[in-house]
C-alpha cells in the first residue's frame, strides 16, 4: 500500500505595488507543525508532521500565510506579504518496487494567497516578522475585510470604523455594572477614553459624502489628518487584538492609552451624548 507524505512546499513572495525590499536577511521560524524559511523572496515550508497530500498541507500553510499577511498589514498600515504557490514535494514512504523514485508528485500552480492594493512607496530592509499571537480568526477576518474595503476606496472611513467598533462591542460579553464599551476596554486592555474618541469621531464628524449621520452639527466637515490617522490606527489595533485574544484568551495584553495613538483635543475623549 502506498504511503504518500508531503516533505516540502515552496512559495514565492510577490512584489506589492509600492513596497520593495533591499537585501533583507533570511527569516527562519517555526509555527506549530510547520518550519518556514524565507530567503531571496523564496519561502520554503517543511512540515514537521504527516500530511498525506498537497491539499491538506496547503490548507494549514495558507491559513498561516493569511494570518502573517494580515498581521503585517495591520502593523505597518500597508500590505506587503503576498505569496504565490510554486510547487509541492510528495514522497512515497512505502514505494512499490524497490529502488523506485521517492518523489511521487511535484505540482506547480500559481495561486495568490493575499490581495489588495496600496499607493504607498515603501522600501523595507527586513521581512515582516511572523505573527507572534495573531491568527486570522473568523471575527478578525470580518473586521479586516471591512478595513481592506476602506483602503481600496470601496467605503468611507467612518462607516467602516463604526461597523468595527459596534461589531466588537456586540461580540464582547458584559457583566453586572459593565456596559459593552467598558467590556471591550477591559478585554482588550484599551483605555475607555480611546473607544469614546473613536465613537465620537465616526458618529459626529463627517461631510455629506462620508458622514455617518445626516444632521446639522458643528462637525459637518471632512475628517482632518490627525482624526483620520487616529481612527485608522485604533481600528487596526482592534482587529489585531480580536485575532490575538481569540487565539490565546488567557494571555494578558499591554494596556494601551492615549499616548499610543495620534493626539486629539481633550474633549474627544469624553463620552458625548
Q: Brief description of this entry?
A:
With 273 residues, this protein is of the alpha+beta class.
Task: Provide structural commentary.
There is one protein chain. The protein has 273 residues and is of the alpha+beta class. It folds into 2 domains: 4-124, no CATH class; 138-269, no CATH class. Helices cover 35% and strands 19% of the residues. It contains 6 helices and 8 strands. The chain has helices spanning 54-76, 138-151, 157-170, 180-187, 192-204, 225-247; strands at 4-14, 19-21, 27-31, 34-39, 42-47, 82-92, 103-108, 122-124. The strands form 2 sheets. A 6-stranded antiparallel sheet has the order 3-4-5-1-6-7, with helices on one face. It has a two-stranded parallel ribbon with strand order 2-8. A hairpin with a 2-residue loop joins β3 (27-31) and β4. α5 packs across α6 (225-247). The longest helix has 23 residues, at 54-76. The relative contact order is 0.13.
Essential attributes:
alpha+beta; 19% strand; two-stranded parallel sheet; elongated; single chain; six-stranded antiparallel sheet; 6 helices; 273 residues
Work out the count of structural domains.
2
Distance between the termini: 71 Å
- Note the run of SSEs as H and E: EEEEEHEEEHHHHH
User: How much β-strand is present in the residues?
Assistant: 15-25%
Q: Order of strands in the sheet with the most strands? A: 3-4-5-1-6-7
Broad structural category: alpha+beta
* Average pLDDT number: 85
Topology, number of strands: 8
Shape: elongated
Rg over CA atoms:
22 Å
Could you estimate the helical fraction of the residues in percent?
25-40%
